């Protein structure tokens, strides 16, 4: 981005205007060899300063909560970008089970519960396709208080968005997302009921 010093610009304008104004000759109207002529030479100097500022990496977060079959699900979308260029998307889903479901889980070994939940996740449409795409990772874990955490991380620089858009059961159409600015994508999430998380 180029900036012109305002002092120099004002001086340039002032000198330009004065060069256009005729200078009165006190001896005008007199004839003879004693007549003087005035000549004004204007010299202008313009300074330009070039500054480059690199866009900062920003992360915006949006949250949505829903309940189904006694399971409360909180979805947190973290959108990281630099200027208008996407860096990554992270989708964290926290499943809070009903007290009855938690009691059934506590009767089992936590490793067994984690294994069962992992199998359930793998049977979901498109999950195996999702993990087969470069730049996409999927993790799941069970907390001590029996909340099930599922995280999908998408590296926007490595991931083929066209291929990602073909994954069955994945709610976001990334062919559209990649053509949106990060701010517009955030606005679309808010339109669909997500709340922006301010930190």
From TrEMBL:
Q: Pinpoint the SP-0191-like C-terminal domain residues.
A: 64-183
Pfam families assigned = SP_0191-like
Which range is the signal sequence, renumbered to this chain?
Answer: 1-19
What are the record keywords, sorted?
Signal
Segments for region (Disordered): 25-47
Q: Tell me the domain of life.
A: Bacteria
- What NCBIfam families does the record tag this protein with? lipo_SP0191
Name recorded for this polypeptide: SP-0191-like C-terminal domain-containing protein
